[in-house]
Amino acid sequence: MTAGQAADSPQFISVLKKIRVRGPVGRPRTRPDAVAGDKAYSSRGNRAYLRKRRIEAVIPEKRDQAANRKKKGSKGGRPVRHDADLYKERNTVERLINKLKAWRGIATRYDKTPESYLAGLHLRAAMIWIKDLARTIP
Questions:
Q1: Is there a contact between 121 and 100 (Cβ–Cβ < 8 Å)?
Q2: What stretches of the chain show up as alpha helix (H) in DSSP?
Q3: What is the pLDDT of residue 22?
Q4: Most exposed of 8, 28, 36, 123 (fewest Cβ within 10 Å)?
Q5: Phi, psi (5° rounding) for residue 109?
Q6: Taking 90 as the threshold, does the pLDDT of residue 71 lie above it?
Q7: Quick one: which of 94, 85, 37 has its CA closest to 61?
Q8: DSSP-derived 3-state class of residue 57
Q9: How far is it, in rounded angstroms, from Cα 84 to Cα 95?
Q10: Which tens digit of pLDDT belongs to each residue from 122-137?
């Protein structure tokens, strides 16, 4: 939990270290096959961390980074590539964030303490989950 005005990219590695991926069987894995993020996560440090852990980065390159790379010519390195089809699946996460922020207290972060804000997030997530369950049960 960070301050509301803090950027997301510096937290990328610490959040990724806490993620556990569940498959159909077995224990949760600590290394996903791929990580999708928007252009805000396109940094040399984030990409190096993912490469070191053999995780595919599904992160498009920022326009200014591409311009700097091209300006260096052959010394600028190869262009960043990402799986466009896998990147489209980020839409699911973006829609969930929009549903969470539909609750005004979360969108504007009225709560002063991280504990009460996190409790509000959990409550809103539970409400979304219950509504989804009610819709799927005949």
A1: yes
A2: 12-18, 44-52, 63-71, 84-88, 90-101, 104-108, 114-136
A3: 85
A4: 28
A5: 55, 60
A6: no
A7: 37
A8: strand
A9: 18
A10: 999 999 999 988 888 7
Distance from C-alpha of 134 to C-alpha of 41, rounded to nearest angstrom: 35
Q: Which residues pair with 58 in a beta bridge?
A: 36
pTM for the complete prediction?
0.71
Phi, psi (deg, nearest 5) at residue 11: -90, -5
What angle do helix axes 114-136 and 90-101 make, rounded to 10 degrees? 110
Please tell me the number of Cα atoms within 13 Å of 79 on its side-chain side: 7
Q: What is the pLDDT of residues 91-130, one digit of tens each?
A: 888 898 899 988 888 888 777 788 888 888 999 999 999 9
55: Cβ contacts below 8 Å, ≥ 6 apart: 31, 32, 33, 34, 35
- DSSP 8-state symbol, 76: G
* Residue 56: strand, helix, or coil: strand
